[in-house]
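Data card: per-record layout.
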Amino acid sequence: MNLYEYDDYLRNKDGITVICGVDEAGRGPLAGDVYAAAVVLRGSPIEGINDSKKLSHKKREMLYQRIIESTSSVSVGIATVSEIEEINILNAAMLAMKRAIEGLNCDCEIVYIDGNRIPSGIGKRIDCIIKGDTLSASIAAASIVAKAERDRYMMKMDEIYPEYGFAAHKGYGTRAHYEKIVEYGLSPIHRRTFLKSFT
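The structure for this 199-residue chain is written out next.
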């Protein structure tokens, strides 16, 4: 069963027509906001859609453009570094997902979220799918959009804070990133709760 067939299975199982997939990007990095995307796929299948972590940067960018151009509704939600620090990264990721769902411009019948947690306060039918980004085309598309949007944001942060190399590692805890933190200290977009030994 491919990812689009799995979405058909979900529609048939739940007796619905319009579904939305949701996923997040940026839960693990040491710096930067956390992003989430909500995607409602319509029309012809987009060949190559898969979990964003399994795609090269070039392939992900190509698919991102096709998703944006051909879906009926795409929405991106963000939770900032200050929100991550205040409510922790898990709750911030849930908040970003909630904002993404609330930003949709169509009325989907059910929302499927990657993982095992559901954001609170969403007035829609909602369900979780563990490893959904490897099973569902809708969730995989959301993972691609969230990752691509966050990468664009980190490229902008690299222009503001070029000494940290954000364009290369996107805020993740690489050896080079830790070396730059030791050399320059923490930037305003570093998550201090992730880096307590440096504060």
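Known properties of this structure: Strands lie at 19-25, 34-40, 73-79, 110-114, 126-129. The radius of gyration is 17 Å.

See the next section for split statistics.
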